[in-house]
Task: structure prediction
Amino acid sequence: MSLHSEFLGIKSPNPFWLASAPPTDKDYNVRRAFDAGWGGVVWKTLGLDPNIVNVNGPRYGAVWGPDRRLLGMNNIELITDRPLQTNLDEIKLIKKDYPDRAVVVSLMVPCEEDCWKSILPKVDETEADGLELNFGCPHGMSERGMGSAVGQVPDYIEMVTRWVKANTRMPVIVKLTPNITDIRYPARAAFKGGGDAVSLINTVASIVSVNLDTFSPEPSIDGKGSHGGYCGPAVKPIALNLVSQIARDTETKGKKISGIGGVTNWRDAAEFLALGASNVQVCTAVMTYGFGIIDELTSGLSSWMKEKEINSIDEIIGRAIPNVTDWQYLNLNHVTKAEINQDLCIKCGRCYAVCEDTSHQAITNTIAGKRGFEVIDEECVACNMCINVCPVEECITMRPLEPGEIDARTGKIVQKEYANWTTHPNNPSAVKVAE
Amino acid sequence: MSNSILSPGILSSRLKEEEYEKNFSDAYPGYSNYEAQVEADRCYFCYDAPCITACPTEINIPLFIRQISTGMENEAAKTIFNQNILGGMCARVCPTETLCEEACVREASEGKPVKIGRLQRFATDSLMEKDTHPFTRSETLNMKVVVVGSGPAGLSCAHRLALHGYDVDVMESSEKAGGLNEFGIATYKSVDDFAAREVEWLVKIGGITLKVGKQLGVDFSIDELLSSYDAVFIGCGLSDTNKLNFESELSKSTEDAVDFISDLRQVDDFSSMPIGRNIIVIGGGMTAIDAAVQSRLLGAETVTIVYRRGLDAMGASSKERDNATSKGVKIICNAMPIDLQSKEGLSELTLAYSETDPKNGKLRKLDQTFTLQADQIFCAIGQKLSAMETTFKANRGKIEVDDKGRTSIKGIWAGGDCVDLGEDLTVSAVAQGRDAAENIHETLMSKKGDPK
Result:
């Protein structure tokens, strides 16, 4: 069993890369990250000189859960604010000192071929392993026609990718923005332009909060705020969906994807891999806990792989994709009922509140005259909300009815055969089943 | 020269100044904002929450905790005060481990309930610190109600009546209002003169006149009250105590734990409070625990609680018992005092082992005995109603009331420890005072509407 990863020929001892962001901004950080065990880095995005400037007030906003656990974060930081040559020198040194790690350079320059032609040879010089084109940042740089301003126009993606491929020896990863209606179009454009892989998601355009004293969005710069890019655990579901769409799309199926978006622990990483990513990039989790989480990521993933008898990362990639389907193909003959384990129930009544007030009135609040909660099979549509709100894991579960059992709600016998919406009598455009 | 814990006799100044200060500081200091946020996040906002049911004043606990978690501790406090105007004191003295926190579903799931009492204190303290009163009194009704006793029941009743627009006179026999909140609670549970400050804050509703030094049966009679007020509420508590009843004349030489606790509450300088080197406390309730713990805190070398029944039958909660034992108090159960002698300046208490018949709960004295020596013996074997010239229908030595707080005499309501309802808890007294006030209001309003 090995965590070894190969992405477009770029080798790394594990599939965990640090995403292009503040953690990969300079020699000092990257060195410490590699010493901690990270498999690779995508260097903080380089641009043309003169280097950009950042705001001198707060750059990050946050959404907290209980105990101020960081659930989501947004930022208004721009690309690297250091001179180009400083970064290039450090990249070269790092690659020399850590030859077994992946070093990919993120780039963002204006949408003019000459700009790309001028920077690419300098990056080639560093002997880094690959390029990532930042077509994703939704704030600041996008106002200047870069970042997501490119990523939102498939034609631009294709055009710029083509320029880049024509002027570099390196494999090219195109980083996509989620701030678009259908992710398949930019992905197709990236590959059409000759891109070797896509990475996603970049951050989601967001305002995380408004200060109710000053009425300024946060983070607030002298009483004003600007939308930022949202990231962290909160965006993971968005990212998983978008990754899976590219992995399923007939035009991009089988292409390399680097998964990004709220990867916080080994499970998140495994889920991205299962939905078609070949590796993952991490940022917010290290910006919350530091580089040390790499030990949890690697040990967790290997231990799970051992348990599942999975020998290589390749065996995980895309493993869940055959199970991702469209709603219309879901089996309507699969009938389940919620069941409350009375021994585990702590009688908080949250399931009752949600079912009674907002769902299907399918839970009682008394059992034999006493406070207690039980599912009424005649009413339960198996919506799962009771499980979602129950504070006790495994206390409420869904029991699939066996074929032949009667669904107390509909009075119908559960059928063994698979049947979906496409053949359902209520569907006006149902396909007639052949006699 | 100052004394030490080993000095024989009943002496003051057994400890250093800083030891007194430490011993009588706030036992459970208030939460910081951060602690409150973290704890508030633990609440599940249960449906028909068991904690509400378990609270005698039925505070909407999940609501006030949710208000804390959204940074609205003053709104949280209003939710509390709406049901329990003495929510500040109750947050300090309620045996939450047998009330709301015992019922908390997190107690069932992980043995760690949401710290409701401490969250309540966080909310109530923050509002009371603002020094404004959260409620506005209705326009005056030009009707007068008298409340006898300014303990939790009386204050709660008076506040609710004042809120409805009544003018309320509160008669208090001692020179200071507050009742057991002021005189009956362990010092370390109500530091910084909290009880007095709470009364001061409570009467800011307006319409309440506190008349201290006015004793029922001495300064006024029930009949006089009935003729000069539209309604009467009795919340006089239990001002008499039970005494040991064995033959030795010396049994009279024991001291009332209630007096000891009360004296300690009023003392400015703890080092001036004399305490014996060896202490025995007789009894199994909160009073016994409070007297025992505070004896240790004053520098007594050994303190022993003796209780005639088993640990389970003790009125004091397990949390209070644990607190006592952690302070070095020894608890001896199933032992009943049978004789008291004096020997070389020390009292010698002889006890017989006893057992409780599991069938009928009757106590049986066993033959085997033992003897304990002490400089001071505190009795905490229950309180009782003082004799009154007016005869109310009584039940187990207490004034009988119905579920609305009405006594057998028309126009007189009663609540708190002096009545035969519920447990003798501050929070129960508050509920009874409040509910009686509502019934007084209802009764007087319907009477007002009646054609004469």
User: Anything to note?
Assistant: The interface with chain B takes residues 66-68, 346-350, 352-353, 356, 365, 371, 391-392 of chain A (CB under 8 Å). The domain at 327-423 of chain A is CATH 3.30.70.20 (Alpha-Beta Plaits). The CA atoms of residues 96 and 155 of chain A lie 37 Å apart. The mean pLDDT of chain A is 96.
